[in-house]
Amino acid sequence: MNLDPSHSKRSFSSVGTRPIRPDGVDKVTGRARYGADFNMPGQLVGRILRSPHAHAMIRKIDTSKAAQLPGVKAVLTAADLPDLTNGDAAMYDILDNCMARKKALYDGHAVAAVAAIDARTAKQALKLIEVEYELLPHVTDVDQAFAPDAPLINDTIFTTGVDPKPDCPSNVSMRSQFGHGDVDAGMAKADFVVERTFKTEQTHQGYIEPHACVASVGSDGTADLWVCTQGHFVYRQHCAQLLGMDASKLRVTSSEIGGGFGGKTHVWAEPVALALSRKAGRPVKLVMTRDEVFRASGPTSATSIDVKIGALRDGTIIAADATLRYSCGPYAGAWAEVGAMTAFACYKLENVRTVGYEVLVNRPKTAAYRAPSAPMAAFAVESAIDELAKKVGMDPVDFRIRNAAQEGTKASYGPVYGPIGIGPTLEAVKNHPHMKAPLGKNQGRGMACGFWFNFGGQTCTDLNIGMDGTVSLAVGTVDVGGSRASLSLVAAEELGIDYSQVRAVIADTSSLGYNDMTDGSRGTFSSSMATISAARNAIKILRERAAQMWDIPVEDVTWEKGHAVAKGETHGNLPKLSLKEIAAAAGTTGGPIAGHSEIVADGAGVSFATHICDIEVDPETGAAKVLRYTVVQDAGKAVHPTYVEGQYQGGAAQGIGWALNEEYIYGKDGRLQNAGFLDYRIPVCSDLPMIDTQILEIPNPNHPYGVRGVGETSIVPPLAAVANAVSNAVGVRMQHIPMSPPRILAALDA
Amino acid sequence: MAGIAVSTKINGDNAEFLCHPDETLLDVLRDRLGLMGVKEGCGTGDCGACSIILDDRLVCSCLVLGAEAEGGRIETVEGMAQGDQLHPLQQKFLEHAALQCGICTPGFLMAAKDLLAKNPDPTEEEIRFGLAGNLCRCTGYDKIVRAVQDAAGVMRGA
Amino acid sequence: MRYIRPSSLEDAVGLLVEASGKAAILAGGSDLLVRMKGGFIEPDLIIDIKAIDALKHMTESEDGFVIGAAVPCAVLGENAALRRAWPGVVEGANLIGSKQVQGRCTIVGNLCNASPAADSVPALVAAGAKALIRGPAGSRIAAVEMVPVGPGKTSLASGEIIEAILLDKRQPRSGDAYQRFTPRTEMDIAVVSAAVNLTLDDQGIVQSARVALGAAAPTVLLVEEAAAVLTGSRVDDGTLNRLAEVCSGACRPIDDKRGTVEFRRKVAGVLAKRVALTAYQRAGQK
User: Fold this and answer.
1) Domain boundary residue among B62, B79, B96?
2) Do A303-454+605-749 and A35-136+210-257+264-296 have the same topology in CATH?
3) Which residue of chain B is at minimal alpha-carbon distance from C31?
């Protein structure tokens, strides 16, 4: 669905305004219901027993004492979950991650579960389950796991993507490669080369709401699942498959979601809750503790990245090369592949090569975290770019402008770019007042670019016009940050009515066709496309009804500003018919009026950003303070500018935390030491300054309004922007994220 | 069970409940009294999502036993609006888009209410340190601080 | 499990003595409830001392300050006289936890929890504070630094409760200060900390000093060698550098998820310098 040709001349009446969101009052009054805010009569409390070992054979599980405890209604192990995955390796991994089948693969891996009449009984029951473990050697560090002599986690893993296929299993599940040209020849021509290795530690999405669900399976096999999720259709599909249910018999309702950022696009405990409910014959409420969220949901990859970039004297980058090792947890993944795709995406390169390796480790199964894999690659590349600019003798912004990708550039990962925003964001940064703010002692400024693909995907939308002319918009993309408001604006825009006349709801899985989850920054992009399509379908019908009411041909009816207008000499003087009037007469003209849309939203526009960060370092302690932060990002078209700003600021804040303090700390025993918000340090209000934002709009030619996804790109530049700022402040290149005070102090003292 | 009988006042109304000795006030408010506006983010006082005002002090309800509420006055987010009139903080949070997912919002509203009650004209730094006990993962705090500044002005009659 | 709210200190002591299982004192609860949630303690009896009137007050007299065991740290910060006399003590107390925790936590609870990183303890030790202890045999007074004997362990005998913290009347030309190192600006636990309390003579020379380091050893370190460095000086740069060296050397820290030995040693010295200077400036203003 292409950009409306009138897009640039069009003045929008609803899109681009900043009304209050429809779910807002519920959220400021406590009325909004999240995953743990729902209860069913007779419900049981579900709890999961988890391995305290990083790697161990499960020799025996004796649940008899737990089962006999009064008040315990069901006990579950992998023995209760037959393998119905039918050879689907990815689904098998999900099944095994939900409940360990042979081995405990990380500290926190689920090994058994109970459902009991109350929390204290459930807690007591877990204590009565006896598990016999046989400890195995473990490995939690990505570099150590990559080494050929590392403890082997899965003996069925033979690295794919290498030729010939290896004859020994290893911890490397896949090798991927992207690029074009001849990197070695190009590097030989370079006048300046920077070559460095960078490391980033594992982080977690850090959503404040723990995973929570209520599962209820009836004796006839129909089931209900209330759950906080980014993708209720995906959850339905996965749960149904794992439990051997027809998808149509499982209705999944998404609650309001208290943050996800990718971590709630995978099932963790939901299949277990359903299985417990099926066994007990009663609803089961299962809420993860904060400790469990850190230990047993899906953090990011930890990475180790080698970068080599060469430039000519005139500032042209002549060759770029990167090798990226990403940890994927104890199961095969495709995270390094995405890192390898995004690493050099901002640049126009004659010779480029990226090679990615997926590395298994005894840590929880890696999940998506906002532009997954891109921030780490950007950290490595943008740090090297900064260093190279200095060697060439150019200003870091000018160096990037010179080498930035443009419309027509062949991206390092393959496709040719259409109109894109990297150049404009760089120019905007160059001229931004932030760049002129004076810097004092121990202060440094850094800037960096970032890229994200954005996704489209399967999307369904129903637009129903009520008898009173108000509009119900049912969408299937979970609202994580205000998209109901944006989609209502789009519907209002298309129909030509006021925003207040539209109410958007997130429909459950029984009420709408399949929707891909809210990830890949696709929520507003895809659902707005589907909403526009549904609205235009509804307008067709509205015109037909008006034509009927006037008894004129439908070709003589247009739709303008919320009204049917009769055109032409013969009918031109008929008074306009409002949407309300047509709706009121619907019962006599053919019945309820609606527009539907089931599409694959193609052509999501890639999105670029450039950030600027000022840091002050305390040279005696290594403490770093963020003084100023600016985000410049291309949104294509900002449907609700305030929420777009919010996405920019939120992603930047997560990136700052990742850059400075957040990391998973494992002991030599392979156990996670900081599974809580005290020692897993996300930024607090006093850690951050105001975050300045600038929205650029380079329209996406594949969307009627030019919309591009915005949610993810903002987390891609901060690791590098902060690292470049710290490096400039301390005069030493920082190579290890997070740059916690001891690391900064060590760099200073070195 | 020999539960502990507790009498307290919640959002101005008398409330009585039975609870176990080790049940937290958070558990009681949510599971026994149905006040779901109080959220559990961590259960150990590290995130502030469960913040309430107890006897004019901002506290984490996960760090108070239900039994300790005997004779106390509790305020939760459910008591902030007067009928259909939102409190200025609630209104400004909406206008400034100081919430995205909204799970931290009840806790922030309580913390901001307490802050402004004790310091009606805070500086940006005072707001940031006053709200430092509440974690937000979505907004980066920028719009929250602006909403509190704006609400403070309204409440001062400025 | 039982929960009891005695209305007198005698009753509280009696309950402790009679308790057949594990008994825990509940004041602010910000340590106890966290430990219960984490499964580290399952008390059979919780004794809530907040109904004991005598423990809820802070009083100032000719002899100094008496801070009852049930006084929340927020109240300390709201007391102008205490802030004027002992700003370092107040700094330490007001850094515990968050705003939410401040309305509940107590310095006595902080002391008895005996975490090496306790925020209120170094400044209390530097201030020469004492603990008024009530037990079955009667009352006794002990220097605050004698109370914690190891992480999570105190020297209190069975049946003993700390009734109050006592601070001496402030001498003129005295100042104290406390600083801790945390990676975040708030909501954090000290990686290492330092407190200095000093008194100047009428020439502006340090007449007496006490230096305490936190999170640098299993219990708070009272570093007499550091005090000796300050005594007789005007807290000039040379003195400060020597102070930092001594403090770094006195540390017996560990490597843990919050910091390494090397980092703690280095920063202990840096913080000691900073608080010594602040204490000196505060003393000079009085």
Assistant:
1) B79
2) no
3) B63
For C109-144, give the secondary structure using H, E and C. HHHHHCCCCCCHHHHHHHCCCEEEEEECCEEEEEEH
Nearest Cα residue in chain B from A643 = B97
Residues in A whose CB is inside 8 Å of some CB of C read: 620-623, 660-661, 665, 673-674, 678-679, 681, 683-687, 740-742, 745
- Any CB–CB contact under 8 A between B125 and chain A? yes
With cut-offs at 50, 70 and 90, classify the pLDDT of residue A646: very high
- Name the phi and psi angles at A291, rounded to 5: -55, -45
pLDDT at A516: 82
The structure tokens 């888009």 sit at B97
CB contact under 8 A, C257 and A740: no
Contact state of C263 with A623 under an 8 Å Cβ cutoff: no
HEC sequence for A219-252:
CCCCEEEEECCCCHHHHHHHHHHHHCCCHHHEEE
C258 touches A: beta carbon within 8 Å: yes
**3-class state of residue A17 by DSSP:** coil
Mean local confidence (pLDDT), A229-249:
94
What are the CB-based long-range contacts (under 8 Å, 24+) for C224-229?
Answer: C225/C250, C226/C250, C226/C272
Return d(Cα A532, Cα A538) in angstroms, integer: 10
User: Mean of the pLDDT values across residues A367-386?
Assistant: 97
Strands A624-634 and A691-696: parallel
Cβ distance A616 to A332 under 8 Å?
A: no
Beta bridge partners of A672: A666
Provide the shortest C-alpha distance from residue C189 to chain A (in Å).
8
Cis-peptide into A5, omega within 30 deg = no
Confidence of residue C18 (pLDDT cuts 50, 70, 90): very high
How far, in Å, CA of A311 to CA of A140, rounded?
A: 37
User: What is the rounded distance in angstroms from the CA atom of residue B93 to the CA atom of residue B143?
Assistant: 8
Which chains does chain A touch, 3 or more C-beta pairs < 8 A?
B, C
Model confidence, pTM: 0.95
The CATH code of the domain at A303-454+605-749 is: 3.30.365.10
Are B41 and B108 within one domain? no
**Residue B32 tokens, joined:** 């026994």
Pair (B9, B75) in one structural domain: yes
CB contact under 8 A, C98 and B43: no
SS3 content of chain B, % helix, strand, coil (to 5): 40, 20, 45
CATH code of B36's domain: 3.10.20.30
Over residues C226-239, the pLDDT tens digits come to: 999 999 999 999 99
Q: Is the ipTM of this complex over 0.85?
A: yes
Which pLDDT score, from 0 to 100, does residue A481 have? 77
Q: Is the model more confident about A11 or about A254?
A: A254
8 Å CB contact between A483 and B103: no
Q: Dihedral, CA atoms, C235, C240, C243, C244, nearest 10 degrees? A: 160
Facing residue for A678 by CB, picked from C185, C189, C262: C189
User: Element (H or E) spanning B110, and its range?
Assistant: helix B105-118
Using a CB–CB cut-off of 8 Å, the residues of B that contact C are 4, 20-22, 24, 43-46, 48, 51, 54, 57-60, 62-65, 67-68, 70, 111, 114-115, 129-133, 135
Express each pLDDT in A278-303 by its tens digit. 999 999 999 999 999 999 999 999 99
CATH no. for A35-136+210-257+264-296: 3.90.1170.50
Domain at B102, CATH number: 1.10.150.120
Contact of B144 with chain A, judged by CB distance below 8 Å, is answered with yes
Can you tell me the mean pLDDT for B129-146? 98
- Considering CB atoms only, which of A31, A210, A650 is closest to B100? A650
DSSP symbol at B31: I
